[in-house]
What we know:
The chain has 386 residues and is of the alpha/beta class. It contains 13 helices and eight strands. The strands form two sheets. It has a six-stranded parallel sheet with strand order 1-8-5-4-2-3, sandwiched between helices. The chain is globular. The N and C termini lie far apart (45 Å).
Amino acid sequence: xxxxxxxxxxxxxxxxxxxEIPGEIQRRGYTKVFxxxxxxxxxxxxxxxxxxxxxxxxxxxxxxxxxKPNPTIxxxxxxxxxxxASGADCIVTVGGGSAMDTAKAIGIIINNPEFADVRSxxxxxxxxxxxxxxxxxxxxxxxxxxxxxxxxxxxxxKVRKFVxxxxxxxxxxxxxxxxxxxxxxxxxTASTGMDALTHAIEGYTTKGxxxxxxxxxxxxxxxxxxxxxxxxxxxxxxxxxxxxxxxALAQYIAGMGFSNVGLGIDHxxxxxxxxxxxxxxxxxxxMLLPIAMExxxxxxxxxxxxxAVAMGVDTTGMTTDEAADAAIAAVRQLSEDVNIPKVCEAIxxxxxxxxxxxxxxxxxxxxxxxxxxxxxxxxxxxxxMA
Length: 386
């Protein structure tokens, strides 16, 4: 079987990387940019860091910021209309996963209009044309949507999230500039960072894992374990430092891996919590991560022992089983240290059957290394109930 790797054509990393954006647009002959961002980033001047550069370079642009934290089908359809009306010929998306996921869907539909209902993009859609040329600029260190071939949309009518996987949606250019992440509050820094850790650990233990993606995931786990606490402290103090920069790189590296091999039951359950209760995605992932690791331990015990080493645990003298338990304990400690909630108070007992079914139907579940049934998933959800 052939293993496939899909990445950006070009990516820029480090302080001041956004200065490369105008040149990437001009070299390709594009004349007007559709800037896709979220209203808070516009309000607090983060988006302007990019649009000011466009202005200085004499590049025309229009703004679309009607995006919710968990973007909906309507957000995408409104964005498609706005793009068509704008006269733009390329996209620059500035934001976290919500803005980048919305931009991906817009770019795909513009060039593949037969998928305008959005729902038909679920799973692996048979699109034939690459999305509109896109430069992705993340403002959070977690989702890695700037490098992945995945995006997630919320179906409000059916109260569910659905995952779209399409090599045609990968942004051609990623610009990972820690300065664009400087306004993240501590809570968001923590939750997005734990999302990145979940990507790395699930990607390392998923059914599709192989040597090249293992390399990415283990390095990402190492970097996150070293930098997330510092990044949260920097967010609290308002001072810049190596933690933020380390997390910017770590989350991108994790995305290089999991985008190509898939995830597992943690993300399947987290998507369900977000769809039903609007639980922030990173918080949902973090609450469930040690629980998912414990569930999967019988079939990935050696890989979890590797995770412990990557997290900086001294496993000298430990058995493989003990090292795997140490990895789970290290994840719990990191989550506690960055103040992630341990329970989801919104879950209702009479809804457990429905959310368990939805989790098992999620596109991330098939990658899980251990099979689960309905009753098992119900019990896993109970572990995070108040």
